[in-house]
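# nightly structure sweep
# worker-07 picked up a monomer target from the shared queue
# config: single-sequence mode, recycle default, output format = C-alpha cells
# input follows
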Amino acid sequence: MLLGDSPISWATRKQDVTTLLSSEAEYIALGAGAQDGMWMAKVMEFMNTPVIPRVWTDNRGASTLSYNPDFHRRTKHIRQRHHFVRECVDDGDISVHWVPGENNPADMLTKPVTGKRLEELKKRAGMTV
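# output follows
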C-alpha cells in the first residue's frame, strides 16, 4: 500500500480457495486489496483527509471483471463473496487500474527477480537503501 509515493504496508497470504483461472485468482486478490484500501480510506477519513483508494492489477481479466457487472460464461462460477471489489467500484469507493507487468513494483514481493530488476522495482516503489 502506498500513501502518496511512499510505501506504508504490504501483505502476502495464501488464498483459501481453489480457482479455475489465473484471472479469477487475481480478481480475488484484487478484492483483498480493495478491503485494505477501504480500511486505509477510513483511517484517512478519521484524520480529515478523505481519499478514494486506487487498486492496481497487472491482470487485464481481473481489471475488466471488476468493472463489468455481467457474468460471463467463464466466470459465472465465482462465488458472490468474491465480488466485493466490483461493489466498491460500483459505489465509487475505489478505482481499479491496470498496470503492465513490467511496471508493477509488487513483482519484487511475489516473483523471483534478478538483482538489477530488484533495484529497478525498489526505485519504482520509492524504496531507498
